[in-house]
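#struct-help
A.M.: can someone run this one for me? Single chain, 694 residues.
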Amino acid sequence: MKEYQTEEIRNIVLLGHASSGKTSLVEAMLFNSGITNRLGRIDDGTTISDYHEDEIARKFSISSSLLHYEWKNRKINIVDSPGYLDFISESKAITRVMDMALIVIHARSGVEVGTEFVFNFAKEDDLPCWFIVNQLDKEHADFDKVLENLKKTFSKKVFPLQLPVNAGVDFDSVVDVLSRKIIVYSKDGKGTVTEKEIPTDLKSEIDSLHEKVIEFAAESDDELLEKFFEEGTLSEDDILKGLKKAIISRNLFPVFAVSAYNNIGVKNLMDIISIYAPSPSESKPVKAILNKNEIKRKISDDDPVSLFVFKTISALHIGELSMFKVMSGSVTTGMDLVNVRTHKSERMGQIFVINGKDKKEIAHLHAGDLGTVVKLKYTHTADTLSDPKTLIKYPGIKFPDPVIQVAVEAKSRGDEEKISTGLQTLADEDPTFLFHYDSELKQTILSGQGELHLTIILKRLKQQYNVDVIQIPPRIPYRETVKKRGESKYRHKKQSGGAGQFAEVWMYVEPLERGAGVEFSNTLVGQNVDRVFVPSVEKGVKAACEEGILAGYRVTDLKAVFYDGKQHPVDSKDIAFQIAGKGAFKECFMDADPILLEPIYDIEVIVPEEFMGDIMGDISVRRGKILGMKSEGSFQKIIAKVPLAELYRYGTALRSMSQGRGFHRQKLSHYEPMPKEFQEKVVEESKKRKEEEK
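D.P.: on it. Structure tokens below:
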């Protein structure tokens, strides 16, 4: 491969809802450019992009793949991203480093919930977007309906640069609005092209669209607009300049018509990408932190070297493979850089350009290019590597909050360390997967974007580390508090020969407002208790709060006051007052009408309108309170508050109710008292658990 300069590079991400045909589109591009000698097929498991065992078995993308091809003296880097809702959040890292997004739409289904997610990801990173209406060879494919759907959902600036001539099972021709030609493709999948003139009955419509294209170009630049008013038209060079500006500024969202599976419309799309897609140097300046100041700068070879790691994968027999974008300067093998987060030095080992799992070593990458490097010791996803003399840092990536949690236990004793190591490696590879050991619940908790997401994680854990785990529901982190004032006078006395123990603590507790935590104070007067024992009593209170009293959950939202007591001149000591403080607090607590608080979560459920009734009914059954509804593009959003205890595997239930077209987000809102009948059940379960542990 030749060495490509920044202005010769194009970085494209394929985004879209599941089954819209992203992988088929990239396979057609690789075939047309000569990377492959036949079209890869998902059903046959022969695609370059979906090469993982799970992807081949399940027949959809689970992880994003980096690919590239050469076309018209341009190097086109492409990332094929997952569309299944459990894995779609990975796109958030990809949009950060790409220069344009192709959002693929199914010609029958139109805009779906995943389409809106990825459009918003691109919007957050100010990324230009093109819409690719795919699968126009399907029965009931409706380009016009999808086009209107796109305009209504996203922007009036959505505009077709291609139109299908004969959408449906015989689809083989598109109108190119820019050249005002009909392009006819062979139906054998080879992408062979012939051009035809536009027939008379279509000419006025296409001429009108072409005029609109010129207006988009003119409106993007004051000089071009003035020229357009003076001359009534623009030259081809002016149209190119203006359209690029409109695309980069998100003032134009072009729409194209293809059947990726049959390789129809794809070559024309590739031509237009090579001409109209922005190079890294033409894209908007990148935000960064330099010398504690926020700056913006263009991607250029002229600045000191820096790169941003946007994905980490674990490759068999190689170890960790880091995918990166060269943000400035040029990168060579053997170069020493500094990880700006860890401040540790990293040497750039072998640098590769890749197509799926196929790697080709390369010595040099210029600013704006994408590559991979092996065996970085201290670097993970969203890290910046920089020239040691000019430490620049690019912003991290905020991934969507998890929507599911499960607890896991080792199936075999002694595997705990291997499980922890494996989970850490998988979390480094996939930032949308989180895990931690919860010391309160005494469980290892896994968090992810859906049930299938965690299923794949645990399958990889078994494959790579040969360990089995058992999935169990996570315990709910209830809280204990009181409803009224409670008092106690507690005496601790122990005499067993020699020095004894003696302490007497007088205490009361009273409730505080929600979120106040636990307050401890003393109002001692006189000399009944030496003040040196106040910290001892506080230690006892804190220990009781951590252990829980009613059902073994942490105590919160109350005030404990140590107001008097008694001591012995010889037998009173620190441990005695700790025990007495703990005992007094427990008695106070049980005297103060104790209750359990349960965590309440804010949830947003996004579904097509026809499923609203079922979803709202289900939320009510889960003891939820519906707060409101509003439109979210072409979908409806239900806003509610639901107890966490009722949300276990909710995503699975939601997809079942919505035929796979619903999605939800959830986050902690607050704690509130449990209904009495549910509290009694939790207390009883706690007693049983304690009995079993004895």
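A.M.: thanks! The mean pLDDT is 94.
D.P.: also worth noting: DSSP finds 16 helices and 37 strands in the chain.
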